[in-house]
Amino acid sequence: MADNNQIGGDYVVIKALENGVTIIGLTRGGATKFHHSEKLDKGEIMIAQFTEHTSAIKIRGRADLMTKHGRIRTDE
After folding, report:
1. Where in this chain does the record put each Tryptophan RNA-binding attenuator protein domain (predicted)?
2. First to last CA, the chain
């Protein structure tokens, strides 16, 4: 059985509003680095999670974000 304390970070739902939206995961630690990237086309959805390795998510392009704090839309 997995230890939920290691995995239990918040989830973010990202819906692309245009083709080519880029999502980049950034690492934790002394030096923040890119560790993963994805491209979404219009209408595609990605569910991302903050974990022991991911401290931030950068989004380029028009997208809707849904978090436990509410809904956010990137600027046009």
Report:
1. 9-75
2. 44
% residues pLDDT > 90 (the chain) = 46
| Dist CA 72 CA 14 (whole Å) | 10
> Which domains can be identified in the chain, with CATH numbers?
4-73 (2.60.40.50)
Two structure tokens written together for 24: 């980049």
Cβ-proximal residues to 35 (8 Å cutoff; 6+ apart), any chain = 25, 26, 27, 53, 54
Both tokens of residue 20? 């080519």
Q: Which two tokens stand for residue 3?
A: 């230890």
